[in-house]
Predict the structure.
Amino acid sequence: MNNGNLLEVKDLTVIFGDSNRREKGNKAVNNVSFTLKKGETLGLVGESGCGKTTLGRTIIRLQKESSGSVLLNGRDLCRLNPFQLRPLRRQMQMIFQNPYSSLNPRMTVLEIIAEPFTGRYSREEKIEKVSKLIVQSGLDPQMMRKFPHEFSGGQRQRIAIARSIA
């Protein structure tokens, strides 16, 4: 039972370094706990290198935890194998600080944002959906045929947000 919590992080710890003697490694995340209900927003603030990105990567299972748990709708993601985790991936997205490194430079904005729709919609439906997402993100839909290098850093961030929503 998840008590209405969308995301629940319990005593999450990530240690890098000596895998045989965890106490000797570098604690990147140390016993972090919080809960989020649907519609809530959490801001994470801290100095460079304090573990914010490691925490995010661990929550969405790009990084393995040393201890603790991550529950999405009451289901512990840390106890799932890759096959079990796969259908849940659609519910998780990470928007990286430097969006340029996460956007394929050979793909147009249309292709980047429409990628999650592959095999589910016609080309016309994809264009319509992407157009709505671009407007929702504060960009002009006429920009969707451009490539990532043609945008400013802030515009790339908006592209990454639109892709996450998709």
User: Anything to note?
Assistant: Residues 56 and 94 are 7 Å apart (CA to CA).
